[in-house]
Amino acid sequence: MRLKDKVAIITGAGRGIGAATAIRFAEEGAKVVIASLFENEVEETVNKIIKNGGEAIGITVDVTDKQQVDTMVRKTLDAYRKLDIIVNNAGITADGTLVKMTEENFDKVIDVNLKGVYNCGQAAAKVMVEQGKGVILNATSVVGLYGNYGQTNYAATKWGVIGMTKTWAKELGKKGVRVNAVAPGFILTPMTESMPEKVLNMMRDKAPVKRLGLPEDIANAYLYLASDEATYVTGSVLEVSGGIVL
């Protein structure tokens, strides 16, 4: 097992990519902390893992609240005595073109997708530096690399996450902590379900592999970066997009 006895926190793990990643990590032997804003989704993912013979606990958390994030990390340490991996997956969208976007929608996406990653990354890094080892994985997007119509706020956060990833890799590498990011393309998740069907079809047709991604495709990328197979990989952005940006 590639993550045997590792302890991993995964935010936004109640559904979509986060849930798929949690299930995949548990299959590979990790003890997984399911973190999400929604208690019912937390319970659902925990139950799936336990039913499949894995080990998991659930924590309801708002990643924009530093105190709640610190509590999440403390509860993880209380349960498992260490923290090997954190996947900063929690994120939202609130789309609108530049001239139509509201200040409220701009701010809330920045708060979750950027400040939330900062809060979780900082809390995890303090533990990992003390341990002398750890892995921080951040969710960015091809939108952060190339932009996307109607997503000024989302693109800004995902570009910002790349900047934090590379900065943290430089700061924490000598402390034994690796930091990487995954940039998914268009993945079939509850988040993309809100997009018009014609847009999803266009993206499907544009991809050389002629399909949209599945949450499991991204989970496998996180698995590689979290595993000891990637011990010489830090500061990288792994694009998993089916070639949609070629």
Automatic annotation (TrEMBL):
One of its GO terms (biological process) is fatty acid biosynthetic process. Its EC number is 1.1.1.100. It is an enzyme of class 1 (oxidoreductase). Belongs to the short-chain dehydrogenases/reductases (SDR) family. It catalyses: a (3R)-hydroxyacyl-[ACP] + NADP(+) = a 3-oxoacyl-[ACP] + NADPH + H(+). Pfam families: adh_short_C2. It comes from the Bacteria. Homotetramer. Pathway: Lipid metabolism; fatty acid biosynthesis. CDD domains: BKR_SDR_c. The lineage of its organism: Bacteria, Bacillati, Bacillota, Clostridia, Lachnospirales. Keywords: Fatty acid biosynthesis, Fatty acid metabolism, Lipid biosynthesis, Lipid metabolism, NADP, Oxidoreductase. Coiled coil: none annotated. Catalyzes the NADPH-dependent reduction of beta-ketoacyl-ACP substrates to beta-hydroxyacyl-ACP products, the first reductive step in the elongation cycle of fatty acid biosynthesis. NADP(+) binds at G12, A13, G14, R15, N89, Y154, A155, A156, T157, K158, I187. The keyword NADP applies. This is 3-oxoacyl-[acyl-carrier-protein] reductase. InterPro entries: 3oxo_ACP_reduc, NAD(P)-bd_dom_sf, Sc_DH/Rdtase_CS, SDR_fam. PROSITE patterns: ADH_SHORT. GO terms for molecular function: 3-oxoacyl-[acyl-carrier-protein] reductase (NADPH) activity; NAD binding. The active site is at Y154. Gene3D superfamilies: NAD(P)-binding Rossmann-like Domain (3.40.50.720).
